[in-house]
Design brief:
Order of helices and strands: EEEH
Shape: globular
Structural class: alpha+beta
Largest sheet: 3 strands, antiparallel
Radius of gyration: 16 Å
Length: about 80
């Protein structure tokens, strides 16, 4: 019983997509719709869309931006393509 630790056991149950491009639009009511695409041989293939409250997206995007900087810096230090796990 209890919650599964993320991500070990949950990953097999959650669809995962490699996203290369996004398009954002006003979804109304203070929400933003984000269309998520993967570029395959130059063609954008829609993978999924999500709707997020604009106020929440401000916090989420700030956290993702900060984490992305950490990962990008680590890639530069260790060399692109070196695997961590």
């Amino acid at each position: 019983m209890g919650m599964e630790k993320f991500p070990a056991k949950m990953l097999g149950h959650i669809p995962t997509y490699y996203i290369t491009d996004t398009i954002q639009e006003d979804a109304g009511g203070g929400n933003i719709r984000i269309w998520n695409y993967t570029r395959i041989r130059g063609v954008l293939v829609l993978r999924f869309q999500c709707i997020v409250a604009s106020t929440k997206l401000l916090t989420i995007s700030r956290n993702i931006n900060d984490f992305s900087k950490i990962i990008a810096h680590a890639e530069q230090v260790r060399g692109i393509g070196d695997h961590v796990h």
